[in-house]
Amino acid sequence: MKSVRAVLDYLVSGDVSYIFGIPAGSVNAFFDELYDTPSITPVIAKHEGAASYMAAAYAKYSGSLSVCIGSSGPGGTNLVTGAANAMREHLPVLFLTGAVPVDTVGLNASQELHADPLYQSVTKYSQRVDRAEDLLPEIHKAVEIALTGVPGPVHIAMPIDVQLSSAAPPALPKFPERVPLLPEDDQIQQVAEKLSGTTGFIFAGQGIRGAVEDVLELAETLDWPIITTPQAKGLIPDNHPLLKGIFGFAGHEEASAFIHSNAAETILVLGSSLGETATNNWNPHLAASRTLIQVDYDATVFNRKYPVDAAVHGDINVTVSSLITALNRLGHRQGPMVERTLRPQEITSEYNSQNVLLSLQKLLPENTRYTVDIGEFMAYVVHYMNVRSPDSFDINVHFGAMGSGIGSAMGAKLAEPERPVVSLTGDGCFFMHGMELLTAKEYNIPVLFVVMNNARLGMVHHGHTLQYKRAHERFGQEAVDITAVAAALGVPSASIHSLEDMNEQTLTEVLNHDGPAVLEVSLVDDNVPPMGDRVKFLSSFGK
User: Hey, CA dihedral for 362, 364, 365, 367, is it positive or negative?
Assistant: First the structure.
């Protein structure tokens, strides 16, 4: 048996359904075996970088291991950004790269690259396998590492001769399952007692995904306000009476005013690493004169920037549930809550980003999930768009890779086919990974790609204008008709040139088809995006 055959059999045993990537000589043996593996569909992207974002989003929303593959050399380097993105988001992705034959290493073979050291800083584990009998054991080890403790990406480099070499048919090891990280009982009791005798608020990051109901019950048991990070937008419903809003990049005044009021004695941090965008550039007021209790399954986040008074190492859902039980024993009970009525979102007649996005959301199904790319529109999404259904926004402020929202939309849709998915992207992002429209068409992935087309790098333009009082003319670019690009690819599209164009008829025209569609919004918005203190922070350097 070819060693690579055993790898495919192993992935089948783990219910892997998709492999994202691009075939090439150094991984052709792997792809050849896919002919005889009907349960796995290869999703052939147009660029490895886009494939890596698809794989990451699939891992996030399927709750399972995802697999991504690229060639030796440039295919492998194209995947590195996606691996770094998955590392930041703690997503279990198995990255496989081809490699030149073992006996040609060091001889300047075509596409030779020592990929394993490149991946070491952006994965939990990276290894090249030089013997056929070691390939399956190393794959199994990598998958186990990806799913154990803090989930994350792993990488295995497979020389082409190793893939093709015969090895004795191995016994397939049992596919790993993640074992929850349990907090210590004594510490749960101590923290519950601290929470019981103080006032405070909950600061929730994206790590609460999968534990939202428990977090809401904890907040209602303590009667504590909730403030979320930008990455956690979409996890707490806007109509919850305890929600104060978002703090950090493009956050809300109500949340900021509450934090600066110093009224709360304790901050309970759940699932946030307290990074730059989550804390408004590490604002000292967040934890000043407060007891800081932090809960996370990643112990490395404790005491990074803010001194922690109590660090609880464990999965959020298990830890929060245990805290609720301990608080109940101390006499605390979940109080009745009345959903607050959301203020109607005011949509004025001005043709600007805010009004376009609010009008779009009003026309789309309530359970739409938005994968939000990097650009000035992102600030408007974070600040203004309502959370109308659970887990409805995928915002990657942390790593901030332009174009990631395009592949992420496709991976999210494959993971949850019944949920409507919209990719909110910009022309700058589209020029990086817009050819994945063709991939979406080829695989009949029904995603609506909304392209905010302002013929410039909008975030860069506004950032420079605010920070340096000028913006280079080359931050702009030649205007391109995105609908014409879509037409060339055979993808239905429509173009918006005024607020009146954003209507039910226009959306019906593009959505009344199988597969993907494009909605181009031609708009140059010179209003300053609601970026919060981001520009002030950048301006502080060099003074």
Answer: negative
